[in-house]
Amino acid sequence: MFLALTAALFASPALADTLITNANGVQSDQAGHITHFTGILIGDDGKIVRMVNATEARPRAAVTIDAGGRTILPGLIDAHGHVTDLGFYALRLNVTGSKSLAELQQRLRDYAAAHPDVKWIQGGGWNQELWPDKKFPTAADLDAIVSGRPVVLERVDGHAVVVNSAAMRAAGVTAATPAPHGGEIHDGVFVDAARGLIARAIPAPSQAELDQALAKAQEILLGYGVTGVGSMSTSVADWNAFRRAGEAGTLNVRLMSYLLGVESIKAVPHPTPWLYGDRLRAVGIKFFADGALGSRGAWLKQPYADKPDSRGLQFHSDAEILALTDQAAAAGFQIATHAIGDAANAQMISTYEQLSHKYGRDRRWRIEHFQIVDPADIPRLAPAGIIASMQPTHQTSDRLMAEARLGMNRLAGTYAWQSVLKSGAKLAFGTDFPVESPNPFPGLSAAISRQDMNGQPPGGWIPSERLTLGQALRAYTRGAAYAGFAEDKIGSLEPGKYADFIIVDRDPTKVDAQSLARTQVLETWVGGKKVWSRAPSASPTERGL
Ligand SMILES: [Zn+2]
After folding, report:
1. So what's the pLDDT on residue 421?
2. Average pLDDT taken over every residue of the chain
3. Quick one: which of 77, 202, 366, 428 could link to 228 by a disulfide (CB 3.0–4.6 Å)?
């Protein structure tokens, strides 16, 4: 008996096992309740051997790392982000947060002076809603700063661009060019389908530029504690960049990729298995059912309150979207469709109901954004196995605009996280970066408070839709993993799953929502290896313990 026990003690932790100990571990269980742990025993395959609780004896391991009582959370998973776009956003002209047209112009002037060799000045992030007069910028506004080379600046929601005259000349577009179906053109602003007129003239990024953008994006994501991403609207060129990084062993963020449109199926005919140590997989195809609310492209059941002659943009007939999604589903792909307005959401729910009859259970049809929904449609999600993939910071960013676009009596069913959960449907959280910052903590904060980082509005916007911290964390970990068919590998810290975790500067269970939003990540670990740590000079001033 004694001998057998000794043998078991020696046999169980392999020599290369690593023990993280003395941690203030916090995660969410399947039911959305907070649970605690004090240690993680990690095998040399980067997977968790077992979790350790406060009452247990410390297991033996080859390497023991004392967490010093700091707070550990599972790596956060952003269910919906645009990976190379994030890198390009960081590398290109960023006008996010400009408080006026004059500020946008100043940033353009500075960037043009600092980058004389850039042939096409590209960038984005403007939002005229933040400007005093709320007027869209024009080609003439850009010409006044840069006229000798093309300038293309995307609106913060990605659904419109403003360009200068040089860009229009390069694209062969004039003031007389008619807008294509599903788009609009006015004074150098190209909305939704009209963006293609400009986009086709922009030289495609080189492989080296894509690789640089991916590396930059990973650095940003890991610094925010994001260890997995539902990589939306992945182009074939993006996919190839992901694969190059995988081959080179430089892929640290796990990517569940959704390729853009059925054309992608030519290049990637079926979902791939997990590649490169479970770092990359092609899992789905992304579609769009409508535009966005900011540019009044969201397709609504009733006219816009602030534009009564419009219900927004319907991208596809019912038959067309069914045929497109059916083609992708037949090839084995998961489907993820952008739907913002209540009419677009109703169309997608009906489409997925039909696909469910054909393809049966567990295809995990996804609706991306699910922002403005007729409350009568929410109970239709769960029976058809539809996942609501939502972005909490869209609620705090968009609430005043939503009030203007919809009017005050059409807000039930907007950003309705708690209603989604109460209906029995699955919820996955993300940010839609770079539309919003990829930092998950303002999102977790918004999810529990319905307030922005400054605590606005007092009491929270439609506070009945708030989540508990456990529910919010679950949507940002387990929910996002489930939404990417990855819940057997990531999304929670438990035996057999990867040791993807982060060390943060405060305990989310012990701080208020505004403090939670300001959480700083200290270290990020993927597969049991530290892949990012905060520079000592940037060490936090506030400790949550
Ligand atoms: Zn998106």
Report:
1. 98
2. 94
3. 77
Rounded to a whole number, what is the distance in angstroms from the first to the last CA of the chain? 43
Q: Cα of 369 to ligand 1 centre, how many Å? A: 8
Antiparallel, parallel or unpaired: β 160-163 and 189-192: antiparallel
504, exposed or middle or buried, with CB in 10 Å at 0-12, 13-18, 19+? Answer: buried
Q: Which DSSP helix (H) or strand (E) runs through 121?
A: strand 121-126
Cα 431 to ligand 1 centre (Å):
8
pTM exceeding 0.90: no
CA 171 / ligand 1 centre spacing (Å): 25
The yes-or-no verdict on residue 4 having pLDDT over 50 is: no
**Span 227-261, pLDDT tens digits:** 999 999 999 999 999 999 999 999 999 999 999 99
**CB 80, CB 506: distance < 8 Å:** no
pLDDT digits (tens, 9 = 90+) for 376-388: 999 999 999 999 9
Task: Collect residues with CB below 5 Å from ion ligand 1.
Answer: 232, 432
Tell me the helix, strand and coil percentages in the chain, rounded to 5: 35, 25, 45
Radius of gyration of the chain from its Cα atoms, rounded to whole angstroms: 24
Residue 354, SS3 per DSSP:
helix
Measured in Å, residue 232 CA sits from the centre of ligand 1 at: 6
Asked if 260 and 282 count as a contact pair (C-beta separation under 8 A), the reply is no
* Residue from 40, 43, 65 nearest 53 by CA: 40
**β-pair partners for 359:** none
- Each residue of 83-134: pLDDT tens digit? 999 999 888 999 999 999 999 999 999 999 998 988 899 999 999 999 999 9
Q: Which residues are within 8 A (CB) of 496 and not within 5 positions of it... i.e. 6 or more apart?
A: 47, 48, 488
> For the purposes of burial, counting CB atoms within 10 Å of the CB of 257, is it exposed (0-12), middle (13-18) or buried (19 or more)?
buried
Please name the helix (run of DSSP H) or strand (run of DSSP E) that holds residue 331, with its range, or none: none
How many residues does the structure list for the chain? 545
Cβ proximity of 209 and 216 under 8 Å: no
Ligand 1 centroid distance, CA of 82 (Å): 6
Burial of residue 129 (number of CB atoms within 10 Å: 0-12, 13-18, 19+): middle
Q: Taking the CA atoms of 482, 85, 289 and 271 in sequence, report the sign of the dihedral they define.
A: negative
**How many CB atoms within 10 Å of residue 463?**
12
Q: Which amino acid is at 33?
A: H
Q: Pick the closest to residue 26 from 77, 76, 75, 71 (CA basis).
A: 71
State both tokens at 366: 């996804």
CA–centroid distance, residue 81 to ligand 1 (Å): 6
pLDDT, position 174: 87
- Give the residue carrying structure tokens 């109901």: 353
